[in-house]
Specification:
CATH topology: Double Stranded RNA Binding Domain
Number of domains: 1
CATH class: Alpha Beta
Radius of gyration: 12 Å
Strand content: 25-35%
Number of strands: 4
Order of helices and strands: EEEHEH
Structural class: alpha+beta
CATH architecture: 2-Layer Sandwich
Number of helices: 2
Shape: elongated
Largest sheet: 4 strands, mixed
Strand order of the largest sheet: 3-2-1-4
Length: 71
Amino acid sequence: MGKDGRVDVAVTFDERRGYVGSAPELRSPVVALSLDGLRRKVEGLMSPDDVIVMLNLDKAARLERDRRRLQ
């Protein structure tokens, strides 16, 4: 976690599992069906209440997010 309480989470998309986020602060990858669900799960795993979760989407995750927005 950075000095400002920020956690950078690398996110990819797997068709079988959904969005998968990983960060050094997390013990294992976090899986969720939506980006909002992923953010909530990561926030729940972090101990401080004032953590800021920054999701860094790779190409697969961005494409899936955009596909869902168009539907």
